[in-house]
Prior knowledge:
The structure is a homodimer of 352-residue chains.
Chain A: E1 2-10, H1 14-32, E2 35-41, H2 45-51, H3 57-64, E3 68-73, H4 88-98, E4 103-109, H5 122-125, E5 130-136, E6 146-149, E7 152-160, H6 161-176, E8 181-186, H7 192-205, E9 212-217, H8 218-227, E10 234-237, H9 239-253, E11 260-264, E12 270-274, H10 291-303, H11 308-323, H12 341-350
Parallel strand pairs in A: 1-2, 1-3, 3-12, 5-10, 8-9, 8-10
Antiparallel strand pairs in A: 4-5, 4-11, 6-7, 11-12
Helix pairs in contact in A: 1-10, 1-12, 6-7, 8-9, 10-11, 11-12
Amino acid sequence: MKYKIAVIKGDGIGPEIVDEAIKVLKKMGEKYNHNFEFTEVLAGGIAIDKTGKNLPEETLQVCKESDAVILGAVGGPKWDSLPGNERPEKALLALRKELNLYSNIRPAVMFDILKDTCPLKPEIVEGGMDIVIVRELTGGIYFGKKFTEGNYACDCMEYSKYEIERIAHQAFKIAQSRNKHVTSVDKANVLETSRLWRKTVEEVAKDYPDVKLNHLYVDNAAMQLVVNPKQFDVIVTENMFGDILSDEASMITGSIGLLPSASLGDNNFGMYEPIHGSAPDIAGQGKANPIATILSISMMLKYTFGLQSESDCIENAVKKTLSDGHRTADIARKGEKIITTVEMGNIIVESI
Amino acid sequence: MKYKIAVIKGDGIGPEIVDEAIKVLKKMGEKYNHNFEFTEVLAGGIAIDKTGKNLPEETLQVCKESDAVILGAVGGPKWDSLPGNERPEKALLALRKELNLYSNIRPAVMFDILKDTCPLKPEIVEGGMDIVIVRELTGGIYFGKKFTEGNYACDCMEYSKYEIERIAHQAFKIAQSRNKHVTSVDKANVLETSRLWRKTVEEVAKDYPDVKLNHLYVDNAAMQLVVNPKQFDVIVTENMFGDILSDEASMITGSIGLLPSASLGDNNFGMYEPIHGSAPDIAGQGKANPIATILSISMMLKYTFGLQSESDCIENAVKKTLSDGHRTADIARKGEKIITTVEMGNIIVESI
Ligand SMILES: CC(C)[C@H](C(=O)O)[C@@H](O)C(=O)O
Ligand SMILES: CC(C)[C@H](C(=O)O)[C@@H](O)C(=O)O
């Protein structure tokens, strides 16, 4: 079988980390006899520089004709003064919308070897932290009507029931394969969209009697993540709340440099990218950690291609590499030997 | 001079904690020869039970004719199934809007005696944490157009320039009396309202050349509060971001039971309330900590009445009481003697 993958390296450290991820995937192809076919396309700042557009038509076309997309990161100070629609981030939003990637899955896991970098006290995260945040990604205030008129501006948070249903199903299904607990986060004491959200999630919950459901207001969720993150299994929430809470959660793990993400549409189509950004300050220096991107590849094998043991194989290779003590600069403690992006990639490839 | 104060005890622990705050205020009146006049009015769940309305017309009238309002807390499970407009929280929102309380000031301070309850590692909060969050309180998605139509719902985040200007001025003025640093939080890479916000804050900043200004996206701010809260002095942000970030920040201090807040309008009019909620689970048991409400009184003396030394006097009495080791249940460590709400009030009154 042939797997068609669109590759968007993007800006900053994007190219370096994606190169390592592709090396890993090629190795997987050899080992398991899969045919991964890569097509590189442009998006973000580099696309602006080379074509004048943050998301060239060809990029969208190639992504649509692929089975999955790998994305490094987009954006950087160079393009920060451009107007809203022309910025690199806009390409990311357009990709999500055009590819109908409505379901963003962000594991917030504390890696044991990074326990020390967790900002919370040890007693709070004792025994580890393992949350999956399921964020609605193509609705809400990101894509609702918006305009500025003189001294007035407006952004509409809009939701239709079917948008809430499909993301809720996703969350409950994921919970079924885990600890069977979904926490739905909204602001139902203030927002109409949240009241529709809560009602719809409760309806969907009836299809999953084995999964426990509770609701939290978003302000309370932001607090609970700090004082008692272990209460969570799967968190499902709308686009902007998901943006805020998933970043807070990933930071709380202390492992943000290692965290992957998947953005899924229908029929298992998906875009895979690290949680961290383009880190322009260290771009091109071989300092970036490719692990979050490599683990994104592992998510791709599982979610889009259904290759569970291949996915596990990458995860195990990463775990082994880490427990053997190999460290890029971001995760090294004082005195530990630091290796480069490429060296990290090579070592992971070797342990596959 | 006579100071007219409307008193809304509200629900849950509201009545108990407000009673102690009033005791403190009466003592202040005696000591400094001020005439504080109190008028008790209903709002929230208790108002629903007694009058059928969460915010009776009389309450609004009395508040408007007063110089300041003291509020305990509103809400509880008893009224949670009521429709949006009839809920206790709606009374709070209506009070904010009707009294034009556009500027919500929430100190997030780590109390030295509560250092141990801070969820962050000691090295992150070493030397203390002292942030003021200035939240816009009468605009944005809380009060924009909203509706549900069948399977579709919509909430509009709306801002006009003058709304941003007045809250920005407030933030810069507060920063001038502190460490001269304002962090403005928005989501300007996605929202039109945020772009208007950022532009306006930058314009207002020109009037305060002695204050440093920086901008953060809300998702990044949620992360920075966890990993490096000491970078902040004054944070200014729109209504919903302020809701989320101020709760996160207050939880991070570990001192949420002690934190007061002020909601200010024009001409120093203000409503004062503790950050914590109505805590229905411990209501009527004498377990509640009145300190956050008593410190809210201290904010009232400062912000509305301009009585700086009276305000300091309350703050010092609270500090002395705490350093003498008096503890309500919420702040007691294992083995420490626990006193009641009323006892805590009495001790603070005595040390005034
Ligand atoms: C870059 C930005 C538009 C984006 C978002 O807000 O969704 C990012 O923060 C993310 O979470 O992927
Ligand atoms: C009760 C609720 C409507 C309110 C808000 O969201 O503003 C509360 O969370 C607060 O922060 O005062």
